[in-house]
Amino acid sequence: MPSRVPSFAELLGRTERSAVHLELRDSYAPTERFEAWRRGERINWDDRVSWWHPYDQLIADTVARGVAIRRARVVSEPVSEYIRWEHYVTHANVTAGEQVRWLPRRLATNIPLPGNDFWLFDGELLRVHHFSGDGEVVEDEITADAETVKLCLNAFEAVWERAIPHQLYEI
After folding, report:
1. How many CA atoms lie within 13 A of 78 on its CB side?
2. Taking every annotated instance into account, which residue ranges of this chain make up the domain DUF6879 (predicted)?
């Protein structure tokens, strides 16, 4: 019988020091929020109630407990329409307390990168995201395999070191 993958909230709730997230795709499955943005709708950032989601609150609560949350995105340039949207909505991530950086893919050539996006909790437990070619989540996998964790941690730190802080990355 397959083991149950804990929810993101459960994993973050157990985290004591750090959570890092590496994103490697130039697009993911479109959401209604993305489609609205494509139609020209924009978020009123001054009206926090209209855009603050449970995810944002989870991040804010976790950061308030002293957990550092960092997200790095490796992106092709010129960026895809999806990445332009992600850059726009990252205001919410930063407001919630995430530190976010962007690395142009051309600067990542000599970084050994894993084949999948992941979250790494306290440098010990990985939640690996498996996507379809269209960017739909197929499944998540949990592993504490030491070699895999080391590869992902080293990859994240190498990307982070070279990446551009969100507020300085211009699209």
Report:
1. 1
2. 7-169
